[in-house]
Each structure stands twice: as C-alpha cells, then as structure tokens.
Amino acid sequence: MSSDSGVQVLVRVRPPSKGEEEGDPIVEKISSNSISILDHTFTFDSVADTTSTQDDIFRLVGLPLVENCLAGFNSSIFAYGQTGSGKTYTMWGPPSALSEDSSSSEWGLTPRVFERLFSRINEEQAKHSDKQLNYQCHCSFLEIYNEQITDLLDPTQKNLQIREDVKAGIYVDCLTEEYVYTMKDVIRLVIKVH
Ligand SMILES: Nc1ncnc2c1ncn2[C@@H]1O[C@H](COP(=O)(O)OP(=O)(O)OP(=O)(O)O)[C@@H](O)[C@H]1O
C-alpha cells in the first residue's frame, strides 16, 4: 500500500464467538487508529472494530492495493494473528460464500481484490485500446509448515527451495503458476487447494 513507510498495519477486532459473549470485552476501539487493551493504548495505521464489514476492509486495504499494482508496484497483504482470530475470514470469507456463483457480501479480501483487478484491467485495456495493453495474471499457492514449503497446486512437490534471482528477486523454485483470466478461474483454484 502506498504510504511513507511502504507498510501499513490494520487491526481488525472480530465479534465475540459463542462462549466468549459473557463479560465485558477487554479490547476497545478508541479512535480510527487506536485500541485500548486493559489500561494500555496501541496505535496502528487503522483499526476496524467488530461492526466492520468485509466491504469496509476491502475499501481500506484492497482498493489501494489494486491501484498500487496497476501503477507498477509489488503489493502484498499479510494476515497475522493467533488461531481463531479471523485471518481466513478476512482473507477469503466463509467457504459457503466462495462456492457461490456471483459475488457475495461475505466475500473476503482475496476474491474482492481479484474481482476489482480484472475489472480494472478491462477498463485500462478499453481506455488504451490503441496501445494493445497485455496483462497477465497468475496464481500460486504454497504452505510453509515445519520449515518445509509444499506446492498446494501440486502437493507431490514438497520441500521446495527459496532462491534469489538478480532480476526476479526472491522466489520459490518450481512452484506451479496457473494463469487466471476471470474470477471463476480464481475460485476454481481456491476450491482445488482447499
Ligand atoms: N469479522 C468476523 N465476523 C464474523 N465472524 C468472524 C469474523 N472473523 C472471524 N469470524 C469467525 O470466527 C471463526 C474463526 O475465524 P478464522 O477461521 O478466520 O480464524 P483463523 O485466524 O483463520 O484461525 P486459524 O489460524 O486457526 O486457521 C470462524 O468461525 C469465522 O467465521
């Protein structure tokens, strides 16, 4: 995301799950970019509380990232948190939402980012039709577990190696890359790796 430091940190507080509902919550959003936990205040670039929707998170994180990519910058989204804190929900949404044919209000960041990316690519190609712009999108999925990298699109490929190339930078050697042209292609791959 574009910012002075190049990295922005957003905290999302998920609603209490069943069994957590009793008692007062100890985490409280106190401004658009800070939370308090017991008597301590912590400041981030942004804070999304339990009322935030998947669309709110997309507007805060996903939209600027797509524009950043189209402007030629590498961009990453990284979800970090303890088990059950909502990483999968935020990045993908519930599995039922992904299997639906059309877009869903429950979609997480990844399908929303791809949907926007493809529509922006179409827009750019139409706007500059004289220039014959050619965009290529491909996806890879990998798991790092016990310091071993497995290719989720071809799980027979275990223990892949991380290498560095002068031009391409850091990459995972022999990782499967599948070209994607539409949201359907992306969802097909997601269902395959799940
Ligand atoms: N913002 C939210 N609104 C509603 N439900 C949520 C939200 N965030 C998470 N949940 C629900 O909380 C549960 C745990 O979330 P999730 O599976 O995304 O956690 P996780 O961080 O990916 O956990 P793990 O590291 O164990 O895979 C799920 O049932 C999910 O649907």
UniProtKB/TrEMBL annotation:
Molecular function terms, GO-annotated: ATP binding; microtubule binding; microtubule motor activity
Residues the entry annotates as binding ATP: 81-88
Keywords linked to the UniProt accession: ATP-binding, Coiled coil, Microtubule, Motor protein, Nucleotide-binding
Domain Kinesin motor: 6-194
Tree of life domain: Eukaryota
GO cellular component terms listed in the entry, alphabetical order: microtubule
Membrane-spanning ranges: none
GO biological-process terms attached to the record: microtubule-based movement
Region of interest (Disordered), ranges: 1-24
PROSITE patterns per the UniProt record, alphabetical: KINESIN_MOTOR_2
Pfam families: Kinesin
Coiled coil as UniProt keyword: yes
Gene3D superfamilies in alphabetical order: Kinesin motor domain
Family to which the UniProt record says this protein belongs: Belongs to the TRAFAC class myosin-kinesin ATPase superfamily. Kinesin family. KIN-12 subfamily.
Descriptive protein name: Kinesin motor domain-containing protein
Organism: Musa acuminata subsp. malaccensis
